[in-house]
């Protein structure tokens, strides 16, 4: 019988203004049955109904956040109940920087759910503190600070579109520049500033880690080859353990000074090595910014 077939359950939560509405629309487009602003007390009933749908509902996404006021406080308890019943779930947590969230609220002219007698910034800080434990339990964290709606949709699609085909674990490899800050959603961060910097080679300065000349320069150094082999082995060792612990998406960040040369080249090489076993996407966060600075 199909009626007891397990469903894929995703709990969507995170900071107000971080893009949960857009995320749920993306999941709906991927065939998820979606419910927004659901009181946590109703999670068991929703999952029961979906499991008894005769296989018609295979994917469920439930949005729960501080809009639920006093009902939201029971989320931890309801998630423990799901675990006790053997029902697997994933938590997708969306966040963004304080400055970006304030700007989004100012532009939308909407009130933050926790604003009351606070300023928008104070409300955001209160919400961030309140959600700290939930963020720590999240399987997937997406930082939408620098994302457009298109970027968010692409990320959601790449993480969730192949779940029914057995591809349940995906990796995002991010290159970044330390001068612009570490990515907020990174699970693993590696600093490659110890490698020779092509920025100081006149004929390579205005190229990037996507160009052959920069790649050839970096890999003419023994330490680059040694690092790639050692770090690839470490990632290969770690991935099965993350999967065993129920993680479905991992963000690996590779950083150099400006996010233009070393981190870009190494992120591409590491991603290529992982693609034989995992679904991998690469995002060069600061490459556009480096090019703009070059023009200026």
Give the tags.
five-stranded parallel β-sheet; 41% helix; Rossmann fold; RapZ-like; alpha/beta
Structure overview:
With 296 residues, the protein is of the alpha/beta class. The chain folds into two domains: 8-168, 3-Layer(aba) Sandwich (Rossmann fold); 171-295, no CATH class. The protein is 41% helix and 18% strand. It is built from eleven helices and nine strands. It has a five-stranded parallel sheet, with helices on both faces. GTP binds at residues 65-68. ATP binds at residues 14-21.
Structural Rg: 21 Å
Work out the helix count.
11
End-to-end C-alpha gap: 65 Å
Helix content: 40-55%
Number of extended strands: 9
CATH topology descriptor of the largest domain? Rossmann fold
Structure classification: alpha/beta
With strands numbered from the N-terminus, the spatial order across the biggest sheet is 2-3-1-4-5
Regions with pLDDT < 50 over 5+ consecutive residues? none
Strand content: 15-25%
**CATH homologous superfamily caption of the largest domain:** P-loop containing nucleotide triphosphate hydrolases
Please tell me the overall pLDDT: 87
H/E order of the elements?
EHEHEHEHHHEHEEHHEHEH
Number of domains: 2
Characterize the overall form.
Answer: globular
Biggest sheet architecture: 5 strands, parallel
CATH class of the largest domain, named Alpha Beta
Q: Can you tell me the CATH architecture of the largest domain?
A: 3-Layer(aba) Sandwich
């Amino acid at each position: 019988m199909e009626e007891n077939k397990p469903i894929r359950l995703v709990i969507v939560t995170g900071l107000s203004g971080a893009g949960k509405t857009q995320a749920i629309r993306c999941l709906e487009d991927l065939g998820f049955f979606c419910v927004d602003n659901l009181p946590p007390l109703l999670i068991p009933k929703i999952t029961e109904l979906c499991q008894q749908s005769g296989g018609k509902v295979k994917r469920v996404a439930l949005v729960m956040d501080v809009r639920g006021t006093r009902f939201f406080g029971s989320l931890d308890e309801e998630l423990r109940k799901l675990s006790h019943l053997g029902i697997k779930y994933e938590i997708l947590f969306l966040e963004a920087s304080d400055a970006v969230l304030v700007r989004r609220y100012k532009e939308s002219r909407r009130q933050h759910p926790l604003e009351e007698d606070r300023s928008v910034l104070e409300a955001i800080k209160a919400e961030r503190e309140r959600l700290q434990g939930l963020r720590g339990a999240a399987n997937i964290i997406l930082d939408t600070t620098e994302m457009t709606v298109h970027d968010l949709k692409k990320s959601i699609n790449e993480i969730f579109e192949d779940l029914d085909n057995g591809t349940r674990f995906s990796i995002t490899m991010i290159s970044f520049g330390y001068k612009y800050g570490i990515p907020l959603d990174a699970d693993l961060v590696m600093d490659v500033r110890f490698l020779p910097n092509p920025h100081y080679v006149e004929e390579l300065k205005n190229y990037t880690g996507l160009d052959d000349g920069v790649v050839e320069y970096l890999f003419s150094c023994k330490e680059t080859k040694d690092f790639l082999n050692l770090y690839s082995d470490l990632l290969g060792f770690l991935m099965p353990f993350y999967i065993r612990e129920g993680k479905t998406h991992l963000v690996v960040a590779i950083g150099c000074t400006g996010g233009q040369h070393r981190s870009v080249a190494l992120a591409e090489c590491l991603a290529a090595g992982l693609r034989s076993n995992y679904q991998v996407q690469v995002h060069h966060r600061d490459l556009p910014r480096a090019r703009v600075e070059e023009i200026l």
